Amino acid sequence: MNDRPRSDGKAQAALVTGAGRGIGRAIAIALAECGWSVVINYRSNAAAAEETLRMVESAGGEGVAVRADVGKADERRRLVDEALRAFGRIDLLVNNAAMAPRERRDVLETTEASFDEVMTVNLKGPFFLTQIVAKAMVKLIEGGVIANATIINIGSVSAYASSANRAEYCLSKAGLAMMTALYADRLAQHGIGVFEVRPGIIRTDMTAAVKDKYDRLIAEGLTPIKRWGEPGDVAQAVVAIAEGRFPFSTGEVINVDGGFHLRRL
Fold it and tell me: Residues with Cβ < 8 Å from 137, sequence gap 6 or more?
């Protein structure tokens, strides 16, 4: 499914949401190192996105930064239009943009406003962005512009590990896991593979606020591999999928979590 011939001689193009920093930035750079062109999507931090763009170009790739809020329908459409205008193709979509609740609250105190905001960014946005991109990918494949395509959702161990003070985040990631299965089922017939990369404890801005907690838990053996994950660990998994190293797979979850998912006695 994902053997990656370049049917028109042009570099393959990836759209990476939330690529201004953290995991998204690492993914954009890793793809550029492999010769990909990258659309660097960001929501608000233009300076960070421009820095990612410079890094992509230094890594040997071509890039373009596009500001768009994936939680808004008109901006999703514009994002895809600008990606196609820039490179004429989308071979890979990486749904990475996500947010934690602005305030951690006990599940008994979760507000509808926080629930709606997190679910819009983390689940509704990726679902409908994938819908738009998938339709474009099918047309590109049928038109012979690309041979196949891939969609990768960046999930979280929070899809199954309860954090009762950020229920909306856990629910959004659990939904993303089912979204992966749904699109994998529907798009396989078109030569589009859909995967979830599921990070564990990764050193990012999102986890900085709980660094001391996770330092202690890791030291106490929370994960068999006793270290923090780095954004580059997630990026390498994305590259492995994007470069077609799982040609007879779709709908798979690739854990990048130091072995957190293992049940141990």
Answer: 90, 91, 93, 146, 149, 187, 190, 192
Question: 33 by DSSP, 3-state: which?
Answer: helix
Give the tens place of pLDDT for each residue, 37-49. 999 999 999 999 9
Which of 42, 160, 169, 214 is flagged as catalytic? 169
216 exposure class (CB count in 10 Å sphere: 0-12, 13-18, 19+): exposed
| Contact predicate 4/148, CB 8 Å | yes
Whether the CB-CB separation of 89 and 73 falls below 8 Å is answered with no
Contacts of 178 (CB under 8 A, 6+ apart): none
> What does the block give as tokens for 53?
């763009």
Per-residue DSSP letters for 134-153?
HHHHHHHHHTTS-S-EEEEE
pLDDT digits (tens, 9 = 90+) for 119-178: 999 999 999 999 999 999 999 999 999 999 999 999 999 999 999 999 999 999 999 999
* Pairing relationship of beta strands 63-67 and 13-16 according to DSSP bridges: unpaired
Q: Which CATH superfamily is domain 13-256 in?
A: NAD(P)-binding Rossmann-like Domain (3.40.50.720)
Give the number of other Cβ atoms within 10 Å of residue 168's Cβ: 23
Per-domain boundaries in the chain: 13-256
Residue 160: active-site member? no
